[in-house]
Amino acid sequence: MITLVRGFKDILPADTALWQHVEAMVRELLEDFGFAELRIPILEQTDLFARSIGTSTDIVEKEMYTFTDRSGDSLTLRPEATASVVRAYIEHGLYAKNPVCKLYTTGPMFRRERPQKGRYRQFYQINAEVFGLHDPRADAELILVLMTCMGRLELPGIVLHINSLGCPECRSKFKGALKPFLTGKVHELCSNCLRRRDKNPMRIFDCKVPTCKKAMLDAPSILDYLCETCQSHFETVKRSLDRFQIPYQINHRLVRGLDYYTRTTFEVLAQALGAQDAVAGGGRYDGLVKALGGPDQPAVGFAIGVDRLMELLAARAQSFEKRPHLFIAALGLRARDTAFQWVQDFRIQRVRAEMDFENRSLKSQMRRADKLGVSYTLIVGDRELDDGAVVFRNMTTKEQENVPVQDLVELVVLGLHFSRMRAPRDKFFCSYFLVSGVLFGVGCQVSGVRCKKH
Ligand code: HAM
Protein backbone atom coordinates (compact mmCIF):
# COMPACT_ATOMS: atom_id res chain seq x y z
CA MET A 1 0.00 0.00 0.00
CA ILE A 2 1.26 3.48 -0.83
CA THR A 3 1.19 5.66 2.29
CA LEU A 4 1.68 9.32 3.18
CA VAL A 5 5.06 10.96 2.68
CA ARG A 6 6.81 11.37 6.06
CA GLY A 7 5.99 14.71 7.69
CA PHE A 8 2.87 15.19 5.54
CA LYS A 9 -0.66 14.55 6.75
CA ASP A 10 -4.27 14.27 5.71
CA ILE A 11 -6.88 16.44 7.35
CA LEU A 12 -9.86 14.15 7.79
CA PRO A 13 -13.56 15.04 7.46
CA ALA A 14 -14.01 14.85 11.26
CA ASP A 15 -11.62 17.82 11.55
CA THR A 16 -12.28 19.92 8.45
CA ALA A 17 -15.40 21.58 9.88
CA LEU A 18 -13.26 23.11 12.63
CA TRP A 19 -10.64 24.18 10.07
CA GLN A 20 -13.36 25.83 8.01
CA HIS A 21 -14.76 27.57 11.08
CA VAL A 22 -11.35 28.94 12.09
CA GLU A 23 -10.45 30.01 8.55
CA ALA A 24 -13.80 31.78 8.11
CA MET A 25 -13.48 33.54 11.48
CA VAL A 26 -9.94 34.79 10.76
CA ARG A 27 -10.88 35.82 7.22
CA GLU A 28 -13.80 37.88 8.52
CA LEU A 29 -11.65 39.48 11.22
CA LEU A 30 -8.91 40.41 8.74
CA GLU A 31 -11.42 41.87 6.31
CA ASP A 32 -12.95 43.94 9.14
CA PHE A 33 -9.46 45.37 9.72
CA GLY A 34 -9.13 46.30 6.03
CA PHE A 35 -7.13 43.35 4.65
CA ALA A 36 -7.79 42.01 1.15
CA GLU A 37 -6.99 38.49 0.05
CA LEU A 38 -4.02 37.77 -2.20
CA ARG A 39 -3.57 34.29 -3.68
CA ILE A 40 0.00 33.38 -4.50
CA PRO A 41 1.57 30.28 -6.05
CA ILE A 42 3.10 27.45 -4.07
CA LEU A 43 6.20 27.41 -6.27
CA GLU A 44 8.68 30.28 -6.64
CA GLN A 45 12.20 30.78 -7.91
CA THR A 46 14.66 29.57 -5.27
CA ASP A 47 16.45 32.92 -5.26
CA LEU A 48 13.37 34.67 -3.88
CA PHE A 49 13.60 32.72 -0.62
CA ALA A 50 17.40 32.71 -0.43
CA ARG A 51 17.50 36.50 -0.76
CA SER A 52 14.64 37.26 1.62
CA ILE A 53 14.80 34.64 4.38
CA GLY A 54 18.63 34.69 4.47
CA THR A 55 21.22 32.20 3.26
CA SER A 56 22.45 31.37 6.77
CA THR A 57 19.02 30.48 8.20
CA ASP A 58 17.99 26.87 8.89
CA ILE A 59 15.15 27.24 6.40
CA VAL A 60 17.38 28.14 3.45
CA GLU A 61 20.37 26.04 4.50
CA LYS A 62 18.59 22.75 5.00
CA GLU A 63 14.81 22.82 4.91
CA MET A 64 13.73 23.88 1.44
CA TYR A 65 12.19 21.52 -1.11
CA THR A 66 14.22 22.67 -4.10
CA PHE A 67 14.47 21.08 -7.52
CA THR A 68 15.63 21.94 -11.01
CA ASP A 69 12.79 21.86 -13.50
CA ARG A 70 13.13 20.70 -17.08
CA SER A 71 14.15 24.15 -18.30
CA GLY A 72 17.02 24.24 -15.81
CA ASP A 73 15.43 26.75 -13.38
CA SER A 74 15.89 26.20 -9.66
CA LEU A 75 12.42 26.21 -8.09
CA THR A 76 11.34 25.86 -4.47
CA LEU A 77 8.10 24.92 -2.73
CA ARG A 78 7.43 27.98 -0.58
CA PRO A 79 8.67 27.56 3.00
CA GLU A 80 6.75 30.71 4.02
CA ALA A 81 4.51 33.29 2.36
CA THR A 82 6.02 36.70 3.13
CA ALA A 83 8.65 36.52 0.38
CA SER A 84 5.97 35.64 -2.20
CA VAL A 85 3.64 38.39 -0.98
CA VAL A 86 6.47 40.93 -1.33
CA ARG A 87 7.28 39.62 -4.81
CA ALA A 88 3.64 39.98 -5.86
CA TYR A 89 3.41 43.44 -4.24
CA ILE A 90 6.39 44.61 -6.30
CA GLU A 91 5.58 42.72 -9.51
CA HIS A 92 2.03 44.10 -9.72
CA GLY A 93 2.93 47.61 -8.53
CA LEU A 94 0.42 47.35 -5.66
CA TYR A 95 2.26 50.19 -3.87
CA ALA A 96 1.25 52.58 -6.67
CA LYS A 97 -2.44 51.75 -6.28
CA ASN A 98 -2.63 52.40 -2.57
CA PRO A 99 -0.03 53.97 -0.26
CA VAL A 100 -1.12 51.58 2.49
CA CYS A 101 -1.66 48.04 1.31
CA LYS A 102 -3.02 45.34 3.63
CA LEU A 103 -2.94 41.81 2.28
CA TYR A 104 -3.71 38.39 3.64
CA THR A 105 -3.04 34.98 2.22
CA THR A 106 -3.66 31.42 3.38
CA GLY A 107 -2.36 28.03 2.35
CA PRO A 108 0.25 25.32 2.73
CA MET A 109 3.99 25.91 3.33
CA PHE A 110 6.76 23.34 3.01
CA ARG A 111 9.82 22.90 5.22
CA ARG A 112 11.88 19.74 5.38
CA GLU A 113 12.21 19.83 9.16
CA ARG A 114 12.50 16.76 11.39
CA PRO A 115 8.85 15.74 11.83
CA GLN A 116 7.45 15.64 15.35
CA LYS A 117 4.27 16.68 17.16
CA GLY A 118 3.35 20.15 15.89
CA ARG A 119 6.10 20.13 13.27
CA TYR A 120 5.21 19.02 9.77
CA ARG A 121 6.84 19.19 6.39
CA GLN A 122 3.63 20.57 4.92
CA PHE A 123 1.80 22.92 7.27
CA TYR A 124 -0.75 25.68 6.86
CA GLN A 125 -0.44 29.37 7.59
CA ILE A 126 -2.70 32.41 7.59
CA ASN A 127 -0.51 35.41 6.78
CA ALA A 128 -1.31 39.10 7.18
CA GLU A 129 1.02 41.77 5.82
CA VAL A 130 0.78 45.59 5.94
CA PHE A 131 2.87 47.68 3.53
CA GLY A 132 3.53 51.41 3.59
CA LEU A 133 3.36 52.30 7.30
CA HIS A 134 6.41 53.33 9.35
CA ASP A 135 4.22 54.19 12.32
CA PRO A 136 4.73 51.86 15.32
CA ARG A 137 0.98 51.92 15.82
CA ALA A 138 0.76 49.73 12.70
CA ASP A 139 2.81 47.08 14.58
CA ALA A 140 0.49 47.35 17.58
CA GLU A 141 -2.62 47.23 15.39
CA LEU A 142 -1.38 44.04 13.76
CA ILE A 143 -0.69 42.47 17.14
CA LEU A 144 -4.21 43.53 18.17
CA VAL A 145 -5.62 41.66 15.15
CA LEU A 146 -3.60 38.58 16.08
CA MET A 147 -4.57 38.64 19.75
CA THR A 148 -8.25 39.32 18.93
CA CYS A 149 -8.14 36.22 16.78
CA MET A 150 -6.64 34.20 19.64
CA GLY A 151 -9.24 35.66 22.00
CA ARG A 152 -12.18 34.80 19.73
CA LEU A 153 -10.95 31.23 19.57
CA GLU A 154 -10.64 31.21 23.37
CA LEU A 155 -7.23 29.56 23.11
CA PRO A 156 -5.98 28.37 26.48
CA GLY A 157 -2.64 29.49 28.00
CA ILE A 158 -1.52 31.95 25.33
CA VAL A 159 1.47 34.27 25.92
CA LEU A 160 2.66 37.09 23.67
CA HIS A 161 6.42 37.68 23.47
CA ILE A 162 7.75 40.87 21.91
CA ASN A 163 11.19 42.25 21.11
CA SER A 164 12.88 44.85 18.96
CA LEU A 165 15.75 43.92 16.67
CA GLY A 166 16.46 47.58 15.89
CA CYS A 167 17.69 48.92 12.57
CA PRO A 168 20.90 47.82 10.76
CA GLU A 169 22.92 50.37 12.78
CA CYS A 170 21.64 49.07 16.14
CA ARG A 171 22.34 45.53 15.04
CA SER A 172 25.84 46.29 13.89
CA LYS A 173 26.63 47.80 17.33
CA PHE A 174 25.00 44.81 19.03
CA LYS A 175 26.96 42.30 16.95
CA GLY A 176 30.10 44.15 18.02
CA ALA A 177 29.23 43.33 21.64
CA LEU A 178 27.98 39.81 20.89
CA LYS A 179 31.14 38.59 19.18
CA PRO A 180 33.49 38.83 22.20
CA PHE A 181 30.75 37.25 24.34
CA LEU A 182 30.53 34.32 21.91
CA THR A 183 34.31 33.93 21.88
CA GLY A 184 34.06 33.08 25.57
CA LYS A 185 31.44 30.43 24.79
CA VAL A 186 33.09 28.52 21.94
CA HIS A 187 33.30 25.31 23.97
CA GLU A 188 29.57 25.36 24.70
CA LEU A 189 28.25 26.08 21.20
CA CYS A 190 27.18 23.45 18.64
CA SER A 191 29.05 23.19 15.34
CA ASN A 192 26.23 25.00 13.55
CA CYS A 193 26.43 27.98 15.88
CA LEU A 194 30.24 28.07 15.69
CA ARG A 195 29.93 28.27 11.92
CA ARG A 196 27.40 31.09 12.21
CA ARG A 197 29.38 33.01 14.82
CA ASP A 198 31.06 35.29 12.28
CA LYS A 199 28.50 35.41 9.48
CA ASN A 200 25.27 35.81 11.43
CA PRO A 201 25.83 35.63 15.21
CA MET A 202 22.25 36.63 16.11
CA ARG A 203 21.05 33.29 14.66
CA ILE A 204 22.61 31.64 17.74
CA PHE A 205 19.74 33.00 19.88
CA ASP A 206 17.42 30.82 17.80
CA CYS A 207 19.37 27.56 18.24
CA LYS A 208 17.35 24.83 19.99
CA VAL A 209 20.40 22.79 21.16
CA PRO A 210 20.23 22.81 25.01
CA THR A 211 23.95 23.69 25.53
CA CYS A 212 23.65 26.65 23.13
CA LYS A 213 20.45 27.79 24.84
CA LYS A 214 22.22 27.65 28.20
CA ALA A 215 25.31 29.43 26.88
CA MET A 216 23.15 32.32 25.62
CA LEU A 217 21.36 32.87 28.93
CA ASP A 218 23.69 35.70 29.99
CA ALA A 219 24.23 37.09 26.48
CA PRO A 220 23.99 40.86 25.99
CA SER A 221 20.53 42.20 25.11
CA ILE A 222 19.76 43.89 21.78
CA LEU A 223 17.42 46.21 23.70
CA ASP A 224 20.48 47.88 25.28
CA TYR A 225 21.82 48.73 21.83
CA LEU A 226 18.78 50.36 20.24
CA CYS A 227 19.28 53.82 18.75
CA GLU A 228 16.95 56.59 19.89
CA THR A 229 14.53 56.18 16.98
CA CYS A 230 14.26 52.41 17.38
CA GLN A 231 13.91 52.82 21.14
CA SER A 232 11.07 55.30 20.69
CA HIS A 233 9.42 53.01 18.09
CA PHE A 234 9.46 50.13 20.57
CA GLU A 235 8.12 52.33 23.37
CA THR A 236 5.14 53.35 21.23
CA VAL A 237 4.42 49.72 20.33
CA LYS A 238 4.42 48.81 24.03
CA ARG A 239 2.31 51.84 24.98
CA SER A 240 -0.24 50.98 22.30
CA LEU A 241 -0.43 47.37 23.51
CA ASP A 242 -1.00 48.68 27.04
CA ARG A 243 -3.78 50.88 25.70
CA PHE A 244 -5.42 47.83 24.08
CA GLN A 245 -4.86 45.95 27.35
CA ILE A 246 -2.90 43.25 25.57
CA PRO A 247 -0.54 41.56 28.05
CA TYR A 248 2.97 40.80 26.75
CA GLN A 249 6.39 39.67 27.88
CA ILE A 250 9.54 41.32 26.60
CA ASN A 251 11.92 38.65 25.32
CA HIS A 252 15.23 40.08 24.14
CA ARG A 253 16.24 36.66 22.77
CA LEU A 254 13.40 36.62 20.25
CA VAL A 255 15.31 36.93 16.95
CA ARG A 256 12.95 34.70 14.86
CA GLY A 257 14.11 32.17 12.29
CA LEU A 258 14.12 34.51 9.30
CA ASP A 259 16.66 37.26 8.60
CA TYR A 260 14.43 39.97 7.15
CA TYR A 261 13.17 41.44 10.42
CA THR A 262 13.86 44.97 11.63
CA ARG A 263 12.60 46.53 14.87
CA THR A 264 9.47 44.84 16.29
CA THR A 265 9.31 41.05 16.39
CA PHE A 266 6.68 38.98 18.21
CA GLU A 267 5.54 35.44 18.80
CA VAL A 268 2.44 33.91 20.38
CA LEU A 269 3.30 30.86 22.46
CA ALA A 270 1.04 28.19 23.93
CA GLN A 271 2.56 26.04 26.66
CA ALA A 272 0.06 23.24 26.01
CA LEU A 273 1.73 22.57 22.66
CA GLY A 274 4.96 21.29 24.23
CA ALA A 275 8.26 21.72 22.36
CA GLN A 276 6.74 23.33 19.26
CA ASP A 277 4.91 26.02 21.19
CA ALA A 278 4.80 28.93 18.71
CA VAL A 279 1.27 29.36 17.35
CA ALA A 280 2.08 32.54 15.44
CA GLY A 281 4.99 34.83 14.74
CA GLY A 282 5.83 37.97 12.90
CA GLY A 283 7.37 41.39 12.91
CA ARG A 284 8.50 44.39 10.93
CA TYR A 285 10.63 43.98 7.81
CA ASP A 286 11.29 47.48 6.55
CA GLY A 287 14.19 46.60 4.22
CA LEU A 288 12.76 43.62 2.36
CA VAL A 289 10.69 45.33 -0.35
CA LYS A 290 13.71 47.40 -1.40
CA ALA A 291 16.09 44.43 -1.14
CA LEU A 292 13.89 42.51 -3.58
CA GLY A 293 13.95 45.34 -6.13
CA GLY A 294 10.87 47.33 -5.08
CA PRO A 295 10.46 50.84 -3.70
CA ASP A 296 11.66 51.71 -0.19
CA GLN A 297 8.40 50.69 1.54
CA PRO A 298 8.16 49.60 5.16
CA ALA A 299 6.22 46.47 6.07
CA VAL A 300 5.04 44.47 9.03
CA GLY A 301 3.22 41.14 9.19
CA PHE A 302 2.49 37.88 10.94
CA ALA A 303 1.70 34.27 10.20
CA ILE A 304 -0.53 31.99 12.24
CA GLY A 305 0.39 28.29 12.19
CA VAL A 306 -3.03 26.76 11.58
CA ASP A 307 -2.00 23.17 12.37
CA ARG A 308 -0.85 24.16 15.86
CA LEU A 309 -3.96 26.26 16.37
CA MET A 310 -6.03 23.19 15.54
CA GLU A 311 -4.08 21.10 18.02
CA LEU A 312 -5.08 23.55 20.73
CA LEU A 313 -8.70 23.41 19.60
CA ALA A 314 -8.82 19.65 18.95
CA ALA A 315 -11.12 18.96 21.88
CA ARG A 316 -13.72 21.18 20.25
CA ALA A 317 -13.56 19.54 16.80
CA GLN A 318 -16.62 17.38 17.44
CA SER A 319 -18.84 20.35 18.18
CA PHE A 320 -18.15 21.72 14.69
CA GLU A 321 -18.88 18.50 12.83
CA LYS A 322 -21.50 19.14 10.18
CA ARG A 323 -24.27 16.60 10.57
CA PRO A 324 -27.28 16.04 8.37
CA HIS A 325 -30.35 17.63 9.80
CA LEU A 326 -33.07 15.42 8.52
CA PHE A 327 -33.28 11.72 7.76
CA ILE A 328 -36.03 10.19 5.66
CA ALA A 329 -36.82 6.62 6.63
CA ALA A 330 -38.73 5.13 3.73
CA LEU A 331 -40.49 1.75 3.58
CA GLY A 332 -41.78 0.32 0.32
CA LEU A 333 -41.00 0.90 -3.32
CA ARG A 334 -43.21 3.99 -3.89
CA ALA A 335 -42.18 5.54 -0.59
CA ARG A 336 -38.48 5.14 -1.41
CA ASP A 337 -39.01 6.71 -4.80
CA THR A 338 -40.83 9.69 -3.26
CA ALA A 339 -38.22 10.00 -0.50
CA PHE A 340 -35.48 10.04 -3.14
CA GLN A 341 -37.14 13.07 -4.74
CA TRP A 342 -37.73 14.78 -1.36
CA VAL A 343 -34.10 14.31 -0.29
CA GLN A 344 -32.89 16.15 -3.38
CA ASP A 345 -35.53 18.89 -2.92
CA PHE A 346 -34.48 19.40 0.71
CA ARG A 347 -30.81 19.65 -0.24
CA ILE A 348 -31.55 22.14 -2.99
CA GLN A 349 -33.43 24.19 -0.36
CA ARG A 350 -30.29 24.00 1.88
CA VAL A 351 -31.63 21.46 4.35
CA ARG A 352 -29.05 18.68 4.85
CA ALA A 353 -31.03 15.52 4.30
CA GLU A 354 -30.09 11.84 4.03
CA MET A 355 -31.87 8.55 3.31
CA ASP A 356 -30.95 4.91 2.86
CA PHE A 357 -30.80 3.60 -0.68
CA GLU A 358 -31.14 0.02 0.47
CA ASN A 359 -34.49 -1.41 1.40
CA ARG A 360 -33.83 -1.92 5.12
CA SER A 361 -36.15 -2.31 8.07
CA LEU A 362 -37.52 0.75 9.88
CA LYS A 363 -35.50 -0.24 12.93
CA SER A 364 -32.19 -0.25 11.09
CA GLN A 365 -33.05 3.00 9.28
CA MET A 366 -33.81 4.66 12.63
CA ARG A 367 -30.51 3.32 13.96
CA ARG A 368 -28.72 4.99 11.05
CA ALA A 369 -30.61 8.26 11.72
CA ASP A 370 -29.40 8.08 15.32
CA LYS A 371 -25.83 7.41 14.25
CA LEU A 372 -25.88 10.35 11.87
CA GLY A 373 -27.05 12.52 14.76
CA VAL A 374 -29.94 14.09 12.81
CA SER A 375 -32.38 16.35 14.61
CA TYR A 376 -35.48 15.14 12.75
CA THR A 377 -36.66 12.09 10.88
CA LEU A 378 -39.50 11.80 8.39
CA ILE A 379 -41.04 8.33 8.35
CA VAL A 380 -42.85 7.40 5.19
CA GLY A 381 -44.32 4.14 3.90
CA ASP A 382 -46.55 3.37 0.94
CA ARG A 383 -49.55 3.44 3.31
CA GLU A 384 -48.69 6.95 4.58
CA LEU A 385 -48.47 8.12 0.98
CA ASP A 386 -51.99 6.78 0.36
CA ASP A 387 -53.24 8.46 3.56
CA GLY A 388 -51.63 11.77 2.52
CA ALA A 389 -49.58 12.36 5.71
CA VAL A 390 -46.18 11.18 6.95
CA VAL A 391 -44.66 11.12 10.44
CA PHE A 392 -42.26 13.89 11.43
CA ARG A 393 -40.22 12.85 14.47
CA ASN A 394 -38.15 15.11 16.70
CA MET A 395 -35.17 12.90 17.54
CA THR A 396 -34.38 14.76 20.74
CA THR A 397 -37.82 14.99 22.35
CA LYS A 398 -39.13 11.89 20.53
CA GLU A 399 -42.34 13.82 19.79
CA GLN A 400 -44.10 12.95 16.54
CA GLU A 401 -46.49 14.88 14.35
CA ASN A 402 -48.17 14.21 11.03
CA VAL A 403 -47.20 16.35 8.07
CA PRO A 404 -49.25 16.36 4.85
CA VAL A 405 -47.60 14.80 1.81
CA GLN A 406 -48.80 17.68 -0.32
CA ASP A 407 -46.28 20.57 -0.11
CA LEU A 408 -44.29 18.53 2.41
CA VAL A 409 -40.88 19.91 1.46
CA GLU A 410 -42.05 23.56 1.55
CA LEU A 411 -43.72 23.02 4.88
CA VAL A 412 -40.73 21.40 6.54
CA VAL A 413 -38.34 23.94 5.04
CA LEU A 414 -40.54 26.72 6.41
CA GLY A 415 -40.35 25.13 9.84
CA LEU A 416 -36.59 24.82 9.66
CA HIS A 417 -36.02 28.14 7.96
CA PHE A 418 -34.11 29.71 10.82
CA SER A 419 -31.89 26.72 11.43
CA ARG A 420 -30.24 26.56 8.06
CA MET A 421 -27.64 24.30 9.62
CA ARG A 422 -24.70 26.41 8.63
CA ALA A 423 -23.38 26.16 12.18
CA PRO A 424 -25.70 23.73 13.86
CA ARG A 425 -23.92 23.85 17.17
CA ASP A 426 -23.34 27.55 17.53
CA LYS A 427 -24.71 29.74 20.26
CA PHE A 428 -27.91 30.53 18.43
CA PHE A 429 -28.82 26.92 17.97
CA CYS A 430 -31.40 26.89 20.73
CA SER A 431 -33.05 30.11 19.66
CA TYR A 432 -33.11 28.91 16.06
CA PHE A 433 -35.13 25.98 17.17
CA LEU A 434 -37.40 27.95 19.36
CA VAL A 435 -38.28 30.16 16.40
CA SER A 436 -38.35 27.33 13.90
CA GLY A 437 -40.57 25.31 16.22
CA VAL A 438 -43.06 28.17 16.40
CA LEU A 439 -42.90 28.66 12.64
CA PHE A 440 -43.40 24.97 12.09
CA GLY A 441 -46.42 25.07 14.36
CA VAL A 442 -47.78 28.06 12.46
CA GLY A 443 -47.04 26.28 9.19
CA CYS A 444 -49.02 23.27 10.37
CA GLN A 445 -51.92 25.45 11.44
CA VAL A 446 -52.00 27.34 8.16
CA SER A 447 -51.92 24.19 6.07
CA GLY A 448 -54.39 22.42 8.30
CA VAL A 449 -52.15 19.58 9.51
CA ARG A 450 -53.62 17.80 12.47
CA CYS A 451 -51.17 17.27 15.27
CA LYS A 452 -51.47 13.82 16.90
CA LYS A 453 -51.79 15.44 20.30
CA HIS A 454 -54.91 17.53 19.39
P1 HAM B 1 7.42 31.48 11.21
O1 HAM B 1 7.62 31.78 12.64
O2 HAM B 1 8.49 30.74 10.52
O3 HAM B 1 7.15 32.85 10.51
O4 HAM B 1 6.07 30.67 11.03
C1 HAM B 1 4.86 31.13 11.56
C2 HAM B 1 4.11 30.01 12.24
O5 HAM B 1 3.98 28.91 11.35
C3 HAM B 1 4.82 29.43 13.45
O6 HAM B 1 4.59 30.21 14.60
C4 HAM B 1 4.19 28.06 13.56
O7 HAM B 1 2.95 28.14 14.23
C5 HAM B 1 3.94 27.69 12.11
N1 HAM B 1 4.98 26.77 11.65
C6 HAM B 1 6.23 27.04 11.23
N2 HAM B 1 6.87 25.92 10.88
C7 HAM B 1 6.02 24.89 11.08
C8 HAM B 1 6.09 23.47 10.90
N3 HAM B 1 7.17 22.88 10.39
N4 HAM B 1 5.00 22.72 11.22
C9 HAM B 1 3.88 23.30 11.71
N5 HAM B 1 3.75 24.64 11.87
C10 HAM B 1 4.81 25.43 11.58
C11 HAM B 1 6.95 32.98 9.19
O8 HAM B 1 6.73 32.07 8.43
C12 HAM B 1 6.91 34.44 8.74
N6 HAM B 1 6.71 34.46 7.28
C13 HAM B 1 5.82 35.19 9.46
C14 HAM B 1 5.69 36.60 9.03
C15 HAM B 1 4.73 37.11 8.22
N7 HAM B 1 6.52 37.59 9.34
C16 HAM B 1 6.11 38.70 8.76
N8 HAM B 1 5.05 38.43 8.05
CATH class wording of the largest domain:
Alpha Beta
**Helix amount:** 40-55%
Largest sheet at a glance? 8 strands, mixed
- For this structure, the CATH topology of the largest domain is BirA Bifunctional Protein, domain 2
Mean pLDDT: 91
Walk me through this protein's architecture:
- By secondary structure, this protein is of the alpha+beta class.
- The protein folds into two domains: 13-167 and 227-317, BirA Bifunctional Protein, domain 2 (2-Layer Sandwich); 323-441, Anticodon-binding domain (Rossmann fold, 3-Layer(aba) Sandwich).
- It contains 17 helices and 16 strands.
- The protein has helices at 13-32, 46-53, 58-63, 82-91, 94-97, 136-152, 168-183, 191-199, 210-215, 228-243, 288-291, 306-313, 333-348, 362-372, 382-387, 408-416, 429-447, and strands at 36-37, 43-45, 65-68, 74-77, 101-110, 122-131, 158-164, 249-250, 262-270, 278-284, 299-305, 326-331, 353-355, 376-381, 389-394, 400-404.
- An eight-stranded mixed β-sheet has the order 1-5-6-11-10-9-7-8. Strands 13-12-14-15-16 form a five-stranded mixed β-sheet, with helices on both faces. Strands 2-4-3 form a three-stranded antiparallel β-sheet.
- A hairpin with a 5-residue loop joins strand 3 (65-68) and strand 4.
- Helix 1 packs antiparallel against helix 6 (136-152) and helix 16 packs antiparallel against helix 17 (429-447).
- The termini are far apart.
- Mean pLDDT is 91; it is low at 421-438 and 444-454.
- Bound molecules: histidyl-adenosine monophosphate (HAM).
